[in-house]
Amino acid sequence: MMSRHWSAWLQATPLACVLGVFLLLPMVVLVVVSFYDYDSVQVIPAFVLTNYQEALGSAVTWRIYVNTLRYTLIVWAITVTLGFGVAYVLAFEIRNRTAQTMLFLVCTVPFLTSNIIRMISWIPFLGREGLLNTALQRAGLIDVPLEFLLFSDFAVILAYVHLYTLFMITPIFNAMMRIDRGLIEAAIDGGARFRQVISQVILPLCKPGIAIGSIFVVTMVMGDFITVRFMSGGQSASVGLMISNQISLLQYPAACANAVILLAVVLMMIAAITRIIDIRKEL
Amino acid sequence: MRGARLPWRRWALLAFLGLFILFLYGPTITILVLSFQGPDGGLTFPMNGVSVVWFERLFEKQAVGDFAGSLTRSFSLAIMVTLATVLIAVTAGFAFRRRFPGSDLLFTLTVASLVIPSILVSLGIGLLFNQAGLDPTWYGSAFGAQLTWTLPFGLLIMFAVFNRFNPAWEEAANDLGASPWQRVRHVVLPIVTPSVIGIALFGFTLSYDEFARTLLTAGSDNTLPLEIFGMTTNVTTPVLYALGTVTTLFSFLLIGLTLLALRVIVRTRR
Amino acid sequence: MRMPGKATMGLGRRGLLAAAGVAAGSGAITGFPTIWAQNIKNVTLRQFGTGVSNLNAIADKVKADLGFTLSMTALDSDAVTQKAVTQPKSFDIADIEYWICKKVYPTGTLQPMEVKRIKYFDKIVPTFTSGRLTPTTPIAQGTAPHTVSFVDSPTAKTFAAGQTGWMTLIPTIYNADTLGIRPDLVGRPITHWKDLMDPAFKGKASILNIPSIGIMDAAMVMESMGRIKYADKGNMTKPEIDKTIGFLIEAKKAGQFRAFWKTFDESVNLMAAGEVIIQSMWSPAVAAVRSKGIPCVYQPLAEGYRAWGGGLGIARHLSGLERDAAYEYINWYLSGWVGAYLNRQGYYSAVLETSKQHMSADEWGFWMEGKPAKADILSPEGKVMEKAGAVRDGGSFQERMGAVACWNSVMTEDRYMVQKWNEFIAA
Prior knowledge:
The structure holds three protein chains of three kinds. Chain A has one domain: MetI-like (MetI-like fold). Helix content of chain A is 76%, strand content 1%. Chain A contains 14 helices and two strands. Chain A has helices spanning 2-33, 50-57, 59-93, 97-108, 115-120, 122-126, 131-138, 153-177, 181-189, 194-223, 226-231, 239-248, 252-276, 279-282, and strands spanning 37-38, 43-44. Chain B is mainly alpha-helical. The mean pLDDT of chain B is 81. In chain C, helix 6 packs across helix 7, helix 7 packs parallel to helix 15 (414-426) and helix 8 crosses helix 9 (283-290). Chain C folds into two domains: 32-168 and 307-334, D-Maltodextrin-Binding Protein, domain 2 (3-Layer(aba) Sandwich); 177-304 and 403-426, Periplasmic binding protein-like II (D-Maltodextrin-Binding Protein, domain 2), CATH 3.40.190. Chain C starts with 12 loop residues before the first helix and ends with a helix. Chain C is α/β, with parallel strands linked by helices. Mean pLDDT of chain C is 84; it is low at 1-35. Chains A and B meet through helix 1, helix 3, helix 4, helix 5 and helix 6 of A and helix 1, helix 3, helix 4, helix 5 and helix 6 of B.
């Protein structure tokens, strides 16, 4: 009995060590420092609750959380729809195995170019004198350039969708590939319509994939700071941006307190998702 | 469902996929076009002439920053992360085939590692090293920080593999008198190999482009994404776009090679 | 990692200048290198700072003149502050701004430099030592460099009231900032800071999103509009902060701003792409826009300039040979070649006398004395920046640096100010 555990423990040790040192310990440090005091230059070891009081007592924090959650929700809704659609086409409409693999890989290539470069390149596309506005103006569709395209919530969400949809496609595609084709044939033979096949056969079987994709997207949007900064032109705030601002201003304890709050929020959201679906079994 | 019965729907769906790919490549195309910007052109439209000068500059030394150095570092780091991820994730994957005391805890920790926003991990590790009086380096702290991001991916892929793994194959091998090592070598590993390539590809990509987790943990030398970010404090030139174009081409090459490798594996196994 | 043979990448003029620099640097004029142990060649000094002054050309020249290696890391200004405080062993030389110094120095990651080892100390522009450019110039508000330049002893963590024998930062680069405009698009003369808030520029204005700097721009605007009279812009009281931020939020909600910028590059792109036609800007950023063939003016204003400055500091852990090398580097930095290089980009250097020796009379006249250029003015890379006959916006060094109204600053109420600033960004 014991010897079997021993080999499992041995095999799990490297993982446990890495996570222990580079995840658990740092999180402990975050929590400890969140109770420290600070002035404009340094962190003072202490046990104070002011960081939490300031964070939770300020209307700004709440507004920023609402804004971040709003981004998360919108981006989630769009990526899940897009992701499901794309995965569906890839999995069921492309019948040739090689074409399937190729198309899937084609979807992943842009992700190898630096996020920052890809983000910056939206700017010349969406700008006041950018490609899109120029094209629309030349086509005579608009007289004045559309300003909402850049440095706006629209731009932020567009960039998120662009950056993160793949993280939704992959697990859903993976789940779809596991669906027994006979099941679908049977449903069609039984007289099910397209919509019914989707909603009653494919969708339920894709739930685990959707859950995993959702976990990725939710986490990444909740913690993002760079996309919001670039695409909103500094006009909008997110929780991650607030934390990164505090870090840059050396207000580490305040940043840590916010980090702990964010951590709690994200973990709760993820717990809620995993409540619905046991990822481990469903992979 | 059948294309023959409802061709318009099939066409609509394929068009949808096409549009999505266009959307995905929109910025890539912008980058491609702008990387041929004239010598006096900037990062935005309008084009100021056409030239390949930015590709030449890419391989020269910049006014600020050090592409060659940071590229080398990012590449080495990505290779290190890939190897470590494959090794650790595959080994841990084996451990998780059975329940063992602490397996739930470790699994929860792994999922947590995936979902904790990068900036928090970065901040935590930065502070930890600072408190411990250690120097953060790209091959130390940043390496660890990136592993907290790539390992969960690797492990999840291993789970997916083993969940679909039919124990009957192993039992059959057992019945035929294979030793435990032979069982792993001749039955398990061949089935796992394609996924291992997947893990490696994931590990490489995630590491190569990692920004937030590296930000506060890289120490004195920049990785490529940090370098690009740092360069925006001075006049950035379309060299950035040239880099993007080269990266995309390189990615196509990498994927082509991977496909080739997979094909070779499949063929040798036949 | 470094590419050999690229030391004189910019050909033509710069090659000539570099050659002149070698002649000058190798002892003829400045006396470098001094008696060097051979092992100095093995020394590597790691410097970090923003892309503004972490130029590879400087590292190449150090290798050529002094023999040791200077490795440069360019970061954005946030990362610079973080690194200086949290990774004290990851660097040897910190290239930071004075307001950052006010935050960083008390954390003890830097060591002060002995004034008597700084060869050109007496020739440093007095703004950095006494706060007055000339004996009659008023001391500007905000974190003026001289207030954070000196400490009483190597162990002191608080700044000294006046000059002492220990210096925290050696000034390297500084400038006076004002509004940059697109003359082709604003359609009227711009004369005051308040013009930034003109409803005519709704959705086409921008300011800096670095709290310590942005708040000063806002303060200049507020005073110009007559909305408030600060006792000290550089050290606002809480009600003053509330009022200033309240005003910014109002303007933001009314749609006055197109975006906020944080890096040099963003400011250039906003202007070049026509997203913004009026914004607070750095002089070289204006030059960068112009070099793309887009008209852009660095507009002097009635209320004066908001100034900033950066300097080099030595890491606390440095000692022995490496510290000697650091001193040698700093003395070399002030000896003229770098100064001329920075002046040619539109910044100002700390020791004018030595920089002048490395610039042509025409260059000096254009950049420093506000005279019309006799020939085309070239950038350090050899690109034409200004055609013959051009006059620099804002005039001479004296006119610009003598009209500084305030410096970027860290206030007593810094923590409160930053909270309010975040409120503005989130609004």
